Amino acid sequence: MTDNSNSAIAFIGLGNMGGPMAGNLAAAGHQVHGFDVGAEALATAREAGIDTFDSVPAAVEGAGIVITMLPNGALVDSVVTEALTVAKPGTLFIDCSTISVEDATDVHDKVTAAGSAFIDAPVSGGVTGAAAGGLAFMVGGDADDISRAAPLFDVMGRAVTHCGPVGAGQAAKLCNNMVLAIQQLAIGEAMVLGEKLGLSAESFHSVVSNSTGSCWALTTNCPVPGPVPTSPANDGFRPGFATALMVKDLGLAMGALDATGAAAPLGRTAAEKFREFADAGNAHLDFSAIIDTLRTDPVRR
């Protein structure tokens, strides 16, 4: 297979996550061709040193690596289909979106049938991690293809785990985000209990973040203002990870539970709670804002 690793990188999807990721690649000296449907995202990308284009094929033409960061599997499939019309044989496709395992394997089959390579590489770390180059990549695919991508992962992230064949990265991401949803609810419940017991947010954070309850949902995404000044709670819950995206990811996890028959009562409860929260008009807020519902839910005895 042709090695196009020294060619330009096409980055499709320059939103809250993709924009900073692509910007970090450009800042590291890579030639980055970018495309997004949003004019504001394109303008921000240009300021970050990314060469922007007016279509997927225009961005992909001449690139040796294509990275996608998109909202759902249907869009990934559509973009990859467009990209394959101009991609050179041997192009490496890296999908950093969160999609179903089945969608990832379907796209892989389409790419390899066209003579190129595909790995799924969803991320954890949110907008803060994307901006800081501190993402964790969970990757599915062939070891040689992952080795080609490794220098780019080093720029965009702090950790890379080869989880198995194509689709395994998505499997790991769905499991991780189900854990995250449960933890964010648990932290919210405990912080509200602490409030009612007269415990300050600062004291709660200091104790729990240094004890057995420590987790990202508290140490980075603390759902009340003050203890972690960079958390979304200090900015009106402007999303690092929007509730709508958490609902989507939990939906994928619920589909996987149904397909495998695995039991996850806490995961199913989290999916229900976040769906209700989104449907109540909060889909645009950071998912940690769900703490507000825990202050107002009626007590069940």
TrEMBL record:
**Pathway as given in its UniProt record:** Amino-acid degradation; L-valine degradation
* PROSITE patterns, alphabetized: 3_HYDROXYISOBUT_DH
What InterPro entries does this protein's entry cite? 3-OH-isobutyrate_DH-rel_CS, 6-PGluconate_DH-like_C_sf, 6PGD_dom2, 6PGDH_NADP-bd, HIBADH, HIBADH-like_NADP-bd, HIBADH-related, NAD(P)-bd_dom_sf
| A Pfam family reported for this protein in Swiss-Prot or TrEMBL | NAD_binding_11
Single GO MF annotation:
3-hydroxyisobutyrate dehydrogenase activity
Q: Which residues form the 6-phosphogluconate dehydrogenase NADP-binding domain?
A: 9-164
For the 3-hydroxyisobutyrate dehydrogenase-like NAD-binding domain, which residue ranges apply?
Answer: 167-293
Q: What is its EC number?
A: 1.1.1.31
Give the domain of life: Bacteria
Record field: catalytic activity:
3-hydroxy-2-methylpropanoate + NAD(+) = 2-methyl-3-oxopropanoate + NADH + H(+)
> Which keywords has UniProt assigned to this entry?
Branched-chain amino acid catabolism, NAD, Oxidoreductase
Family named by the database record: Belongs to the HIBADH-related family.
Specify the protein name: 3-hydroxyisobutyrate dehydrogenase
Lineage, uppermost ranks: Bacteria, Bacillati, Actinomycetota, Actinomycetes, Mycobacteriales
